[in-house]
Amino acid sequence: MMNMWLLIMMMFIFGNMIFISKHKHLLIVLLSLEFIVLSLFFLLVVYLSYIEYDMYMLMIFLLFSVCEGALGLSILVSMIRTHGNDYFQSFSML
User: Fold this and answer.
1) Total domain count for the chain?
2) Where, by residue number, does the polypeptide cross the bilayer (predicted)?
3) Torsion of CA 77, 32, 59, 56, to 10 degrees
4) Planar angle of CA 49, 16, 33, nearest 5 degrees
5) Which domain holds residue 39?
6) What is the pLDDT along the chain (94 residues), one digit of tens a residue?
7) CA 18 – CA 24 distance, rounded (Å)
8) Please, are residues 76 and 27 in contact by the beta-carbon 8 Å criterion?
9) Measured over all CA atoms, what is the biggest interatomic distance in the chain, rounded to whole angstroms?
């Protein structure tokens, strides 16, 4: 059980390190965010099965993470259509 907690914490830390350090492309930022969401999902699975609670919260969390991923992909597609690439330096943040 401790190995699972350690693995989840390592996934969360690596996802945050990639999110902080790799901010040149939007696609890498979105993938790191999805990796963080995946580690939080694993954390919820382990925690809810440990306390023997219902898994309905996981379905709601999965619903919101899918919506977040779809929104991120739509932003990526619209950015590539308007600017031609996914570099953060190619557009202003106004």
Assistant:
1) 1
2) 6-21, 28-50, 56-80
3) -160
4) 75
5) 1-90
6) 788 889 999 999 999 999 899 778 888 889 999 999 999 999 999 988 888 888 888 899 999 999 999 999 999 899 889 888 888 777 666 4
7) 11
8) yes
9) 49
